[in-house]
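Hi support team,

I submitted a single chain yesterday and got back a structure, but I'm not sure I'm reading the token output correctly. Could someone confirm the output below corresponds to the sequence I sent? I've pasted both exactly as they appear in my results page.

Thanks,
R.
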Amino acid sequence: MINHRPNISFIFKATLFFCLVSFFVHFPSSAGSQEPMPKREMLMFEKKEVTARCLVLKSRDIYPYDQALEGFKDELNRQGIVAECFLYNLDGSFSEGYKIIDELEFEGTDFVLCIGSLATTIAYEEVKDTPIVFTMVLDPVASGFIESKEGTLSNIVGSSLDVPFQVQFRELKKVLPRAGKVGVLFRPEETLDVIAEMKAEAKSFGLEIISREVYSEEGVPKALESIIAASDVILAIGDSTVFSPKSTEYIIKKCLDKKVPLVGLSSSFVREGALYAISPDYRDVGTQAGEIAAEIIKGRDIKDLKMADPRIFYLSINLVTAKEIGVNIPKDIIEGAKEVIK
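Hi R., thanks for writing in. Yes, this is the structure output for that exact sequence:
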């Protein structure tokens, strides 16, 4: 089986971007990070006959990935599947990952679970005949892992991290019902397809996407100035060129100064001054990967399975920001939020 090559440039940026967002939130590292790898682990604790065997490749030890793994384990347990797995932590290193995978034996393995884009990239390139289930991956289609959200033509499928635009826009209309023009900064080489999808979805919500191209971190201030003047709200998307650590801080401050609402990428943005953000439930993203793996174990052809988008979301709101920029958040929205900064 020959796979087409993934978009390495996009994957590298997606991996870096997610790690930056994760560390920005100060997620704790895995409690087991001091244990030597690989670690053999039974994913179901009752003493029963093993019904499946898998290899787990975790891109690095961070809290979101640990949550996804717990959700994955719980789902197999719920379905009565006793899976014996070897868990490998790649420590955020491509070189270490390729070294580890070269030493693995895949005979008798039912599937490979990849947590994060780095692990998924390595498995995608090196594992040809064993089913691969990915989870916690930003935009798997743009990354080149699968052909479309409807399924795969190769040996890989899984659950993504991307919050559907339908969910984003539905929440935006609740929080900011008068908003009509949504400003977005993006780098064409990285997220052009994302912008096209966003514009198509926005029309059904009566929203207009005002986009400005950015080709480097240095170009952010000028593009932001232009788009703030033309927009009712600024929506952040997963573009690592636009939202580098330095430019993210600048964008948040500028939106506050200009009293323009900023919709962040995660709760960390909200804590720093964005008005609100919608985040996927990492544990449930892992649960979705478990559901896919269970289907493979039961004999389903991987080509018949669809990629899973997140289905459980959390809202974070910053009421200090709302007051500063003159936005009144409806009471029912505040009561339904997981995190409210006062």
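A quick pointer for reading it: The chain has two domains: 8-161+282-312, 165-278+314-341. Let us know if anything else looks off.

Best,
Support desk
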